[in-house]
Specification:
The chain is an alpha/beta fold. The chain has one domain. Helices cover 19% and strands 43% of the residues. The protein has two helices and ten strands, in the order H-E-E-E-E-H-E-E-E-E-E-E. It has a four-stranded mixed sheet with strand order 1-4-9-3. It has a four-stranded mixed sheet with strand order 5-6-2-10, with no helix packed on it. The chain is elongated.
Amino acid sequence: MKKFFLIWIALLGIAALTFGQTQRTLVKTLPIEQTIHKTIFALRGNVEVEEWNNQTVRIITTITTEHTAENVLKALIIAGRYNYELIVDDANQTITVDMPKKDNAVMINGINLDDKLEYKIYIPKGMNYQVGLDYMLM
């Protein structure tokens, strides 16, 4: 009985570790053409923008979920939930960066996935940009 009790506690401890807070970091680098006047980041979550001396935009996305196993989060990444979509508007010389699949509801074991995203974005020095959903171009 004592051995059974110890095994049961060990299994509960492993389960608690498995379904704790899971965090993944994704990095995406986007080449930007010289003709682009403004970049619009239509992203949901905390967004921090810094300038740097490269002619690319680098987006570092940190995904944090509560009570989700790491393999589930990995499967969502592979399925494309956190892929970026670029919309280039040559007439207005803008590019819009969006993550459209993030809006799709995901249920895991009958519970909505509550994934929180934080972005750190590096843009070329002097580039005009806007952050927010109100600027989405279609």
